[in-house]
Amino acid sequence: MAQNYVAQTKEKNEVWTAVDRYVKEHLVTARDSPYHDALNFAIENQKKEGLPDIAVSTLQGKFLSLQCMILNAKNVLEVGTLGGYSSIWLASSGEEVKVTSVEVEAKNKAVAEKAISNAGLSDRVEVLLGPGIEILPQLRKEVEAGNRPLFDFMFIDADKQNNLNYLNEAVQMCRSRAVIVVDNVVRKGNVSSAEAAKTDERVAGSRKVIEAAGAHPRLQSTVIQTVGEKNYDGFMLCVVK
Questions:
Q1: Which residue of 90, 131, 138, 156 has the smallest Cβ count within 10 Å?
Q2: What pTM does this model have?
């Protein structure tokens, strides 16, 4: 089933953009990562192929990579590949890291695999085609059967309406102390509005996943609001007990 992309209206702020530009100049450099050129290729490739401009920002990608480094993560699950930009960031966190990424759109998968191949990561990044609500239960069964290892880190950045379904599956596939990041849950502040949730299913999905995480016996969670060159939004970070 094709995924309908409905992006948030971009909220540009010169200060946010200037800060991102300054920080990138000093903290995200070719000296810093052997995948610097490959990441730039991934962004340009997805633009050229007409994919929507909804990938994580550069600094958000670096944040994901650092989280994996802190955890010494070896097995990573991503829901929502798009053009492979975040997949490369995740895989860049260590030479032993293996990333399983789930993507619903065949075109996106092809674009991502081109970028992943260009990065020399085809042996460490696997892109599975299909809806997350179908693929994740299959992966969980493989984990339960011992055919896949438990995951150390998960990044959920797909259709917001299914965030809760993804989180419920994710918890069952994680080791203790694994981290789950659910992106774009703040929705420019609209997540605080029950009224907004009545007319925007993405806001409703974000509220459901936050409330469920707060009630989940195996999760400790928080939400961090973010600003930057992309927009005002935020993510939920969960640690599995």
A1: 138
A2: 0.94
Which residue is listed with tokens 């702020």? 13
Of 226, 184, 187, 222, the residue nearest 20 (C-alpha): 226
- 165 CB-side CA count, 13 A: 13
CB 107 within 8 A of CB 134: no
Q: Give whole-number Cα distances, 131 to 9, 39, 80, 128, in Å.
A: 25, 25, 9, 9
pLDDT tens digits for range 166-202: 999 999 999 999 999 999 999 999 999 999 999 999 9
| Nearest partner of 41 among 83, 100, 103, 94, judged by Cα | 83
DSSP structure string for 113-144: HHHHHHTT-TTTEEEEES-HHHHHHHHHHHHH
110, two tokens: 């092809």
Q: What is the rounded distance in angstroms from the CA atom of residue 184 to the CA atom of residue 235? A: 5
DSSP 174-235: EEEEEEEEE-S-SGGGGGG-HHHHHH-HHHHHHHHHHHHHHH-TTEEEEEEEE-SSS-SEEE
The amino acid at residue 93 is: S
